[in-house]
Amino acid sequence: MENEKKLNLGERLLMFNELLLLGVLIVIALLITIGEPKFISILNLKNIIRDSSQILIAGIGMTMLLIAGDVDLSIGSLIAFSTVVFMDVVNKTNNFWFGLLAVLALGAFVGLINGIVVSKFKVNALIGTIAMMMILRGSVYLYSMASIQNFHHLDIFTAFGNGYFGPFPVPVVLMVVLFAGFYIVINKTVFGRRLYATGGNMKAARISGIRTSKLRIQTFVMSSTLAALSGAILCSRMNSGQPNSGNGYELTVIAGVILGGTSLEGGKGTLIGTLLGVLIMRVINNGIILLQWNQDLQIVFSGFVIILAVFLDNKRQAAKAKIITT
Fold it and tell me: Can you give the pTM of this predicted structure?
């Protein structure tokens, strides 16, 4: 108790990250509702949840990467490539599952390359994934200079991004299943414990017997596969493959993840925090549209969120250090 008394009110609040984020989300939602009552309409809330689920699917993988002490800036370009490959394969085979399999294979392959470059070649994750971002962005235009339209009209393709499973949008159901599965992986398995150990102190983790290179490669593969899946959902929603899609997507995902409390330094983070962080960002972006403000403010806001989230993370770590050292 003596240690807690040495923390000021702000530091105490930062120690309860998820509760703080939930409170912020509620306050923002109330303020937007006052300005535009349509915000709480069922249709609008479904749109927010559908948009959030697509980002959160990629955010699950990014959370694991950041916990492990890595980052991936190539997912925006991967998502663009995924939309084009998904639409092209489905058009040529007239088979939804072949298209989805091709996209997931693409994601896994990109993740494997990223993981090898970062963990085996010892290239900084930031630099390595920026290089992959450029490779993918150029490759998608080599693959298709123009958007690929939907020529098959398969019901399952349309439903994948726009349909409903009962009263719930299909992307939301898919997100919930993935969220629950990876929550268990991160919090209840040996892999999850090794993930935190690697991000917290890679050298110590290696000495303790953890095969950190293998773990990092696996994490990159899972993250890129989830990003590719998000791209497939986006393709269904757009009803086409767009080479120029996904611009800035990686920053949106990273902003939501670090706003949720995942540390850029590694070793810390939760999927619950990521969920709340993504929801806060999507609610604010939705509010900007409903209130008819300039939509470029969404990009400006994302930049401020990244700065704020890193600042709060530094304060949170300082508060924890104060407890430990007193």
Answer: 0.93
